[in-house]
Amino acid sequence: QVQLVESGGGLVEAGGSLRLSCAASGSTFGSYAFGWFRQAPGNGDRVVLCISSSDGSTVYADSVKGRFTISRDNAKNTVYLQMNSLKPDDTAVYYCTTVNQGSDSGWYRSGRWGQGTQVTISS
Predict the structure, then answer these.
(1) Residue 119, phi-psi category: left (phi > 0), alpha (psi -120 to 50), beta (remainder)
(2) Which residues of the chain have pLDDT under 70?
(3) Which pLDDT score, from 0 to 100, does residue 106 have?
(4) CA distance 77 to 97
(5) Which of 22, 41, 46, 99 is positioned for an S-S bond with 35, CB 3.0–4.6 A?
(6) How far apart are CA 62 and CA 50, in angstroms?
(7) Nearest residue to 19 via CA among 79, 76, 88
(8) Alpha-carbon separation of residue 90 from 1, 46, 69, 85, 114 (angstroms)
(9) Is residue 104 left, alpha or beta, with left meaning phi > 0 and alpha meaning psi from -120 to 50?
C-alpha cells in the first residue's frame, strides 16, 4: 500500500496561509485518490476536507471551499493542501490518506492513518 507522511504544519495567525505536504512512497501513486482530513481539539472524528481523484477532479467540504486547495504532483509523489484565510476553527491535526469512491458515490478511507501534522491558528 502507498505510505504517506504529512508535513508543513505550524502556528499561524488568523488570516494567514500555510501549505501542507503529503509525501508518498509505494506503487502506482498516480492511480490513487487522496483526501485531506482533520481532527479538531476535543473531537474524536477525523472529518474529510477535500478529495483529489486520480482523474484530476476535486471535491471540497463547505467549511473550506474557496479557502483551501488540494493539488497533486504525481512526478514527485506528493499531495498538497494550500490553506488561505485561516481561521481559529481551522486548528486541528491534519491527515492525508488514500480514499476510494464507493458505489454510493461516497468517499471512504482506504489507507492507514499516519501521524498527521499540527496546525494551530491564533486569533
Answers:
(1) beta
(2) 27
(3) 87
(4) 13
(5) 99
(6) 9
(7) 79
(8) 29, 13, 14, 10, 19
(9) alpha
